[in-house]
């Protein structure tokens, strides 16, 4: 593949991302493509069937809970946060999330009172799959990919997040070389929470930037 946007982790595109189309026909098409690619990769000695299987299993094992652990650590450890913003791949490796050397770079963008980040891949569906698991279907939809750039505030509003007019919205368009993870702001009223409790507040959508983390339930009054 010679297009500039060719990337290596789109194994997630075999599935049901095309509502309205015949499911069987779609699966048949993508399954055949996957088989042909696997055959070429193994025939040419680029990788073995076992390596392909392991890569698939590693991807399937990831979920937004992994990204949430990273965010929660950054909230409680300012030095980790500084390392995360400076070199995200190296910092997440400290938590056991080793990225293969040939994976695209990872950039973490911090939300502040003045700046909010929204991640999209306008061309296809690039996503930090190795840290968040498979992207949701809406992330891959043409509607999201086109509207995120022209009306990011309208998009977050539909996810329930009304951004203040004085907050600058920065849309991060993923590329073949860079995947983005949003570091959302730590919610108010979470001072007494443990790192594990904080991680449970971090949603997948907040790491894409379409919403904010959950706000903890207020303690019941005595
Ligand atoms: Fe893409």
Question: Can you describe this structure?
Answer:
This protein has 222 residues and is an alpha/beta fold. It folds into 2 domains: 23-61, no CATH class; 62-215, Nitrile Hydratase, Chain A, CATH 3.90.330. The chain has 11 helices and 4 strands. The strands form 2 sheets. A two-stranded parallel ribbon has the order 1-4. Strands 2-3 form a two-stranded parallel sheet. Helix 8 packs across helix 9 (152-158). The model is unreliable at 6-21 (pLDDT under 50). Residues 5, 121, 123-126, 174 line the site of fe (iii) ion.
Features:
222 residues; alpha/beta; Nitrile Hydratase, Chain A; 2 domains; two-stranded parallel sheet; 11 helices; 4 strands; binds fe (iii) ion
Q: What's the helix and strand layout?
A:
Elements: H1 23-43, H2 49-61, H3 64-76, H4 78-86, H5 88-93, E1 105-110, E2 115-120, H6 129-132, H7 137-140, H8 142-150, H9 152-158, E3 168-173, E4 178-183, H10 195-199, H11 204-208
Parallel strand pairs: 1-4, 2-3
Bound molecules: fe (iii) ion.
Fe (iii) ion binds at residues 5, 121, 123-126, 174.
């Amino acid at each position: 593949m010679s297009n500039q946007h060719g990337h290596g982790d789109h194994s997630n595109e075999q599935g049901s991302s095309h509502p309205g189309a015949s499911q069987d026909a779609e699966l048949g098409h993508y399954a055949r493509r996957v088989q042909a690619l696997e055959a070429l990769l193994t025939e040419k000695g680029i990788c073995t069937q076992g390596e392909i299987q392991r890569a698939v299993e590693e991807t399937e094992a990831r979920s937004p809970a992994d990204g949430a652990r990273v965010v929660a650590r950054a909230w409680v450890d300012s030095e980790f946060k500084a390392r995360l913003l400076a070199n995200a791949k190296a910092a997440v490796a400290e938590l056991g999330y080793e990225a293969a050397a040939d994976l695209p770079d990872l950039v973490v963008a911090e939300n502040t009172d003045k700046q909010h980040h929204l991640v999209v891949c306008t061309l296809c569906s690039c996503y930090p799959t190795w840290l968040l698991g498979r992207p949701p279907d809406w992330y891959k939809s043409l509607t999201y990919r086109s509207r995120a750039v022209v009306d990011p505030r309208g998009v977050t509003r539909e996810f329930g997040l009304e951004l203040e007019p004085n907050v600058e919205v920065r849309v991060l368009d993923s590329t073949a070389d860079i995947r983005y993870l949003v570091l959302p702001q730590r919610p108010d009223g979470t001072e007494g929470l443990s790192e594990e409790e904080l991680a449970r507040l971090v949603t997948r959508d907040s790491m894409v930037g379409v919403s904010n983390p959950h706000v903890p339930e207020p303690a019941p009054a005595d």
